[in-house]
Structures are given as structure tokens and as C-alpha cells.
Amino acid sequence: MAEKSYYQYETSPRKLEPIKKPQKKSNNQNRTKKEKNKQEEKKILGLSETKKKIKMVCYLIIGFSVLFAIGYRNSQINEAFTKKQSLESEISQIKKENEQLEVNIQNNMNLSQIEALAKEKLGMQKLTSRQTIYIDLPKKDYVEPGTEEVIIEDKSTILDSIIAFFKNIIK
User: Fold this and answer.
1) Could you give the CA distance from residue 98 to residue 105 in angstroms, rounded to a whole number?
2) CA distance 116 to 119
3) Cα–Cα distance between 104 and 98 in angstroms, integer?
4) Residue 7 pLDDT > 70, yes or no?
5) pLDDT at 107
6) Around Cβ 129, how many Cβ atoms within 10 Å?
7) Angle CA 10–12–17, to nearest 5
8) Does 145 or 72 have the greater pLDDT score?
9) Residue 4: pLDDT above 70?
């Protein structure tokens, strides 16, 4: 029992409450049974409340893990998208360079520039009459006609041979 807290001026000790005499056993047993039932109910309620709290914590953990997974997946998607964009920009830049190189090649493909490059870089010269050699070949034909006759056999099935047999009979 809660005592009232007030200042006590006296120095005398507090009075003790008289000891209560136990009542009949039946009332005492009923009280202990009621107290036990109340304690069991409190335990059951306490267990159900702790189970509810545990469920709530589990739901929160599951919810946060789902949100984390979604966020992680979105970050991966963003990384892949930025990589794709950078690769596409590189491709467009390389295509532009290729087009410029093709235009340069087309401009440099005239005969006079090729001749100048051959003379300057490779040290080539035009042929003179002394460097030209003529060869006389007899006018005889060196190709021999084939004397053997090549026969190609058709591989036919049994059904084709039966049809051919009946066609020969009809003719």
C-alpha cells in the first residue's frame, strides 16, 4: 500500500498495522484460484501482446526490405541507362568521324593526287620505253576439249521408280 508522504514532527516510530487473521480456507482458496486465473490471463495477454509486437516488427522489417530492394533495383536501372546513353553518344561521335574520313577519302581519290603520293612517299616513277618488255606467244590454243562424257545419275526413291515404270507402260 502506498503511504502518504508527509512530514512527521514526532520522533516516535510508526505504528504497525495489525496482522490480519486468515479467514476460512475456502475463501482463501477461492482467492488464490482467482489470483492464479488473473495471473494466467495476464500471462496470456502478455504473450499475445508480445506476439503482436513481434508480428509488427516482422512486418516492418519485410516492408523495409521490399523498399530497399525496389530502391536498389532502381539504382541499377539508372546506372544501366546512363551507361547506355554514354555508349550511344560514343557511337554517334564515331559515326561522325567515319563520315568525315569518308569525305576526306573521296576528296583525295583523284588520279593526280595518287600519282603525287606515289612519287613522293614511295619513290615511284613512270615507266620508260627501256623498261617495257614485249613477249611473243604462239597463237596455238592450249586448251584441250574434254573427251570423256560425264553422266550424272539422279538418285531417285522407290516411289519415283514405280511412277516412272507406270509412265513407261502407258507410253
Assistant:
1) 10
2) 5
3) 10
4) no
5) 81
6) 5
7) 115
8) 72
9) no
d(CA 138, CA 51) in angstroms, rounded, equals 112
Indicate the length of the chain as a whole number: 171
**Chain mean pLDDT for the chain:** 81
What one-character-per-residue DSSP string does 30-87 give?
HHHHHHHHHHHHHHHHHHHHHHHHHHHHHHHHHHHHHHHHHHHHHHHHHHHHHHHHHH
CB 90 within 8 A of CB 96: no
Contacts of 28 (CB under 8 A, 6+ apart): 22
The grid cell for 52 is: 503482436
User: Greater confidence, 10 or 124?
Assistant: 124
Phi, psi of 110 (to 5 degrees): -90, 160
Residue 41 Cα distances to 20, 62, 134, angstroms: 28, 31, 124
